[in-house]
Amino acid sequence: MPGSIRRWTGHRVSCALFSPRLKRELQGYSAADTIARYFDEAPTDDVLARAQYVDLKTWLPGDILTKVDRTAMAASLESRVPMLDHDFADWALGLPAEMKLRDGEGKFLLKKALEPLVPNDILYRPKQGFSIPLGKWMAGSMGVEFERDLGTPGGLADSGLFNMATVKRWLAQHRSGLNDHGRILWQLWMFQHFLLQVHASTPDIASALEPAQ
To answer: How big is the chain by its Cα radius of gyration, in Å?
Structure first.
């Protein structure tokens, strides 16, 4: 989870958030290094194809596809992702960049193929995400509950992983409307629940961070 938080926050913010002990244990690790490594390892010189390779190695299996699978299974549904059929994916990855991105229009060839089937005002409308209102949630009752949970034994404060002064300051700033820390606060709250439910005793967390002898 700390690695996941770092992916969203960047180096400056994670330095303020992580405790001195956690920063020592990370030994300079940065999720950005993983992105750079996959970008450099991509078996192509095309920049767009390299970015797609990074997505295939990181974002798809570690984020989007994981969420789809867990959500579907929670509702007892079988889900499939037809555009990740390996033959189709291999073919699509081999297309020249101008067939994927042209004049600022992404998915160029796919949209052209769908023009006879989908109205242009839908096909070419601005992209709309599926973001949940984390900022609003954490500024309201969820933020109140998170603040109340901070002192729970075995949670964030006892884990030794985070600078709790920073956590409390960001929560206060967010609830006052001074800064939007909604995403980070949500991740911290979910990690708090993880600690309480999966690692119920602080010694387990502490021992996991102890360097091997």
So the answer is: 21
